[in-house]
Design a protein that fits this description.
Largest sheet: none
Mean pLDDT: 83
Low-confidence stretches: none
Radius of gyration: 22 Å
Strand content: under 5%
Helix content: 55-70%
Number of strands: 0
Order of helices and strands: HHHH
Number of helices: 4
Length: 125
């Protein structure tokens, strides 16, 4: 069985080239857009890490305006460790060669999920 007709096995095929050779280089506009996206991720991480727990424990009917959630340690862990790690990982992923906007959008989605989880834990628990 001779597979000489397979294009992926020929030495001149694009599949045999390195992936870096197939990707175009980033322009200055690409780097600028990624920098703006990274700033947005940092701002969203700040809001989720600082404002999220405050919204989670806020209470309109409580005398002092603060609810005492049962899972306060979970809120602290999310705000102090998980949110900064997600933010840092997203910013690093944005500037990796194969990252970019996809990593930024995934990271922003993860931050929104963390915000919803914090509010849910603070309100329900």
């Amino acid at each position: 069985m001779d597979n000489s007709g397979n294009a992926a096995d020929s030495p001149a095929s694009p599949a045999s080239l390195e992936p870096a050779a197939l990707r175009p280089r980033r322009t200055v506009a690409d780097w600028g857009w990624l920098a703006v996206l990274a700033m947005g991720v940092l701002a969203a991480g700040f809001v989720v890490g600082v404002v999220g727990p405050l919204v989670a424990i806020a209470c309109d009917t409580c005398q002092d305006g603060v609810r005492n959630p049962r899972f306060v340690n979970v809120l602290i862990t999310l705000a102090w460790y998980v949110v900064p790690a997600t933010t840092l990982g997203t910013v690093v992923g944005i500037f990796l060669p194969r990252g970019g906007a996809r990593a930024g959008v995934i990271g922003l989605g993860a931050l929104m999920v963390l915000l919803i989880a914090m509010v849910f834990i603070g309100r329900v628990a």
